[in-house]
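S1.2 Input.
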Amino acid sequence: MTANASPEDGSPAPAARPWVIKIGGSLSDWHRLGTWLDLIARPGHLHPVVIVPGGGPFADAVRDAQDNWRFDDRLAHRMALLAMEQFGLMLHGICPTLQTAATRERLRSLIRARMPAVWLPSAMALDQPEIAESWEVTSDSLAAWLAVELDAAALVLVKSGPCPCAATDAASLARDGLVDAAFPLWRARFAGESWCIHRDNHLLMEEALAGRATPGCALLRCPEVEPLPSVRA
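S1.3 Output.
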């Protein structure tokens, strides 16, 4: 039975669990960004899709301002969440089919309707005690946090930098600087599958969204990393 099919007894099919796809801010000025957005917005995917936007040049501006004016990490964290929202609004502007969502209720409504969503994180992520207010937590970790919150089936990180060509644990990627320092903790807590895919591999992603392939390199849980305690809001 497919994700859209109803059970044989005629009762409604359960809602499909979403895929959370983080679009790195480094794609903000890439000429094929629209290709990725059109692909994700296309109807008929096996799973509903929620995009987590990176911070891109908007987050870079926050870093530069903090370096210059030396304000604290708490304020920088707030500003970085707004930077993600700026990029998210930009993604919606490029591809208006992508619906913006700032609350759990809005996200769940879009997931039920199988409409592609772009998450605007401030309302949900600000002042959450389990999310550290530091640069060790970037959109990578926030994407994993959201995947936990939504009980997502999978988490995919779309990167401009090199991805490993084979399955690897999240802690190794953090040591190599390919994900943020907090990501291994959130990967340990997330029960679903996780992958890293290079931005050039949109055709592989198309196959994956149709259920015909897996998208890129598997990011495995590291057995040496203790998952964070559950403190869902």
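S1.4 Remarks. The chain has nine helices and eight strands.
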